[in-house]
Amino acid sequence: MKSTTTKIATIITALAFTGMIAAPAATYAVTATTAPIEIKVRVSEKGFIDDKGKPYTAKNTLKIPQGTPVTITFVFSEDMTSLAVGDTHQIAIQSNDGWKAETDKLWIMNRQASIAFRAGENGQTHYRAYCMLDCIGMEHLTNLFIEVV
Ligand SMILES: [Cu+2]
């Protein structure tokens, strides 16, 4: 998966570079801003946490450039010593205009699940991710805000 992504990224970079030579600057700018991105978000009873260990909050939102194809991978990250390690999460992402996608169930035996979409594809300005299940810490899993910038 990762090496395929790298290859695709390399091809896109090569195409963008070719485009930069052959096409006007404006075309290159559009190509450059639509390179796909992958984001990992840890999920636990403590909430949604970024890959550096910082919690997502109303102030610390996920910002994604308009038109960018994005894959958000949610990673089951319960502490092995916590009761919550036996928990199951299932994450939904919903846009301000009602579009919605759901992950598979996340638990100790299925630790990663992804949702892919294009940021702001149909004019959406923001999204919210939340856990759909009654889990330990569910009150902390309501507010991953994704802003289209
Ligand atoms: Cu949950």
Order of helices and strands: HHEEEEEEEEE
How would a textbook summarize the main sheet?
5 strands, mixed
Q: Mean of residue pLDDT?
A: 85
- Count of DSSP-assigned helices: 2
- Number of E strands: 9
Instruction: Tell me, briefly, the overall form.
Output: elongated
What oligomeric assembly is this protein in?
A: single chain
- The CATH superfamily of the largest domain bears the name Cupredoxins -  blue copper proteins
Helix-strand category:
alpha+beta
Whole-number tally of structural domains: 2
Helix content: 10-25%
- What is the CATH architecture term of the largest domain? Sandwich
CATH secondary-structure class of the largest domain = Mainly Beta
User: At the third CATH level, what is the topology name of the largest domain?
Assistant: Immunoglobulin-like
Give a quick set of tags describing it:
five-stranded mixed β-sheet; 2 domains; elongated; 32% strand; Immunoglobulin-like; binds copper (II) ion; four-stranded mixed β-sheet
Please provide a written account of the structure.
This protein has 149 residues and is α+β, with helices and mostly antiparallel strands. It has 2 domains: 33 residues; 113 residues, Cupredoxins -  blue copper proteins (Immunoglobulin-like), CATH 2.60.40.420. The protein has a 5-stranded mixed beta sheet, with no helix packed on it. The chain has a 4-stranded mixed beta sheet with strand order 2-1-4-7, with no helix packed on it. A hairpin with a 2-residue loop joins β1 and β2. The chain is elongated and about 40 Å long. Copper (II) ion (CU) binds next to loops.
